[in-house]
Specification:
With about 150 residues, this protein is α+β, with helices and mostly antiparallel strands. It is built from 3 helices and 6 strands.
Length: about 150
C-alpha cells in the first residue's frame, strides 16, 4: 500500500495536540461568556457572489461544486450566480447572520465565534489553508451616559 502524502496547509492534530487546542478554546469560550458574549456558529458556505463582494478575494475562496453538476446548474456567465464557496473569514457570514436574525437578537449584540475558515492561498511557515479563527463583536448602538462632577 502506498504511503499517503499529507495535504499542505491542512493540519491534522495528534490526540495530545488536540487536547491542548480544546483546552485553549474552552478557556476562551468561558472568558467570553463570563463577560456577556454569546457564542454563535454560522454555516461554512456562503453564496459566492456574497463572498466576493468584499474586494479582490477570489484567489482565497474554495468553491464548492458537485461532481455530477450539470453545466446549466453552474450559474451565469461569470460562474458566480448560485455557486457556493467556503468562507475565508467570519465577517461576511456574521453580517448575513445579523441581517437574517435581526428580529430575534437583542441589541447591542455581543457575540464571539470560534470556527474553521478556509483560504486558498499558498501555505507558508505558520500559515494554513484551513484554520480556526476567533472573532468577537459588539454589534449595535450602546447608549452611554457620563456624569461629570
Amino acid at each position: 500500500m502506498a504511503r499517503p502524502t499529507p495535504l499542505s496547509g491542512f493540519p491534522e492534530w495528534l490526540p495530545d495536540g488536540r487536547v491542548v487546542e480544546q483546552h485553549v478554546l474552552d478557556v476562551l469560550r468561558r472568558t467570553f461568556e463570563l463577560h456577556g458574549f454569546a457564542g454563535i456558529e454560522t454555516r461554512a458556505v456562503e453564496p459566492l457572489d456574497q463572498l466576493l463582494r468584499k474586494g479582490e478575494t477570489s484567489k482565497e475562496v474554495y468553491v464548492l461544486r458537485r461532481l455530477q453538476e450539470e453545466s446549466t446548474e453552474a450559474g451565469a456567465d461569470d460562474g458566480r450566480a448560485g455557486r457556493l464557496g467556503l468562507h475565508f473569514d467570519l465577517t461576511v457570514p456574521f453580517a448575513r447572520y445579523v441581517l437574517e436574525n435581526a428580529g430575534h437578537l437583542t441589541f447591542p449584540f455581543r457575540r464571539y465565534q470560534i470556527q474553521k475558515v478556509w483560504r486558498g492561498e499558498r501555505p507558508q511557515d505558520g500559515r494554513f489553508r484551513e484554520f480556526v479563527q476567533l472573532m468577537s463583536t459588539w454589534w449595535g448602538q450602546v447608549n452611554c451616559r457620563t456624569t461629570t462632577r
